[in-house]
Design goal:
The chain has twelve helices and seven strands. The chain has 283 residues and is an alpha/beta fold. The chain folds into two domains: 163 residues, 3-Layer(aba) Sandwich (Rossmann fold); 82 residues, Conserved Hypothetical Protein Ylqf, Chain: A, domain 2. The protein has a seven-stranded mixed beta sheet with strand order 3-2-1-4-7-6-5, with helices on both faces. A hairpin with a 4-residue loop joins strand 6 and strand 7. Helix 8 crosses helix 10, helix 8 crosses helix 11 and helix 10 packs across helix 11. The longest helix is centred in the last third of the chain and has 15 residues. The relative contact order is 0.16.
Length: 283
Amino acid sequence: MNYQWYPGHMTKARRMMQEDIKLIDVVIELVDARVPVSSRNPDIDELGKNKSRIILLNKADLSDERRNAAWAEYFQKKGIYTAKINSKTGTGIKLIQPLIQEACREKIERDRKRGILNRPVRAMVVGIPNVGKSTFINSFAGKACAKTGNKPGVTKGKQWIRLNKNVELLDTPGILWPKFEDQLIGLKLALIGSIRDELLNAEELALWLIHYLKENYRGSLQKRYECEEQSDNLQTLIAIAENRSCRLKGNELDLPKAAALLLDDFRNGRLGKISLEFPEVTV
């Protein structure tokens, strides 16, 4: 499969971000905790290089807790503040406010020395599709947030949201997609659902996932599907199809259905807490 894509709106979105970044104190980047490197937009480091940075390992409830801790340490060593969260349940959201204040401590202190007191920190949230950006904004902002209207120099249509007296969030339209050369990155993004399923070969994805799980999380497939993990990946998929009665008319096995079932189970954490990237392998 070839996962290379680069939607036309990326150029426009990137240009908008270049304009907005001048107004921003801190960039909050959401990544999927299962693939913290593959789910990062490679442009963000360049665009936000002179800004305070926070990376939120979202969907941390679905990933290997040992790997979550390793990734948090990895990013922190790079000078990036990090937190593990679950935007859907709100887990870890209370950590964000003090993390923003800590990340912007020098900026706040400079303002204080210049006599500028109580100016809210301005934050921008970025993230590729399906990492939970909108869910995070809604969870972080809550129902009490008030839109403060357009600020000077901000393109029409973008809104500043006053989260509280300490933080304003720039809610920008458009989606920033990654551009990548490594096809394995595309495969991992497909596995977490950042590429529409109808564009994919589900069986090929499932076979790669089976191989990966047998190598790194042995026993997870057997526990879920009560079948032996065969040395041949296709045979393992066939065993899953038989266990879940994935059959067509005429009693023929329906492998695409079994593959879709496996992918859905992975995406929803039914195979256990699984990470697809380890710091020691990725770095």
